[in-house]
Structures are given as C-alpha cells and as structure tokens.
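Illustration: CbiX/SirB N-terminal domain-containing protein.
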Amino acid sequence: MENRALILFAHGARAESWKAPFERLRDMTQRRMPEVKVTLAYLELMEPRLQPQVTALVATGATDITVVPVFLGQGAHVLRDLPLMVDELRLIHPSVTITVSGAVGEDPDVLKAMTDYCVKAARP
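Result:
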C-alpha cells in the first residue's frame, strides 16, 4: 500500500503572520483527508522548504506525494522554478512518485468561489 502525502506549496513571506491562512488551509485539508499526511512547504523566506519537506515525508514512509501550488496563477515560480525543484527531488528519491497539480487559483471551482466572495463584498 502506498503512503500518500500532500504538500501545499506556497511562496513564503518575511512576515510570520503570512503563514496563518496557509496553516488553516492545511488543517482544513487534513481533516477532510485523514488518510493522507498534509503538510506545507515554501519556495522562499520561510521554512520548511520543498526539498527538506519531501525528504522528511519520505523518511516517514511516503511513496506518493502530490504538490499543490497554492498560487493564484501559473507564473514563473510555478512554470519554471517548481518543475526544476521536482525534477531534482525525483532524482534524489527515484522510488517516490511526485505529482504536481496546477496552481490552485486556476481551478474553475476556486475561481468561482473567489468570484462569489468578490460579489458578496461589493454588495451593500
């Protein structure tokens, strides 16, 4: 049986308070998927970074890891930087399946939820 893990991959920021919504997202996701280890990793400025997080998950037995870029769009970090990092991780951990989804903000359901929020915010 494969040991699955999900990494929510965010950019990172200097302000520690920036983590809070991502931690809530992680916790909410974990509650909906108790059979999958749900973690966070950051591109820069915050810890843990992606490579140490994958290594830690593999050390606990993860064999199937999905990385979800928690970005609004598919910019350079998602299109260029992340694939390079994942290619390196696949070389380091050849027995582990690492899958990357599209940026969360490009999903039609996420866009609809954001639109609903914007419309609600604009109504008196």
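Reading the tokens back as a structure: The mean pLDDT is 93.
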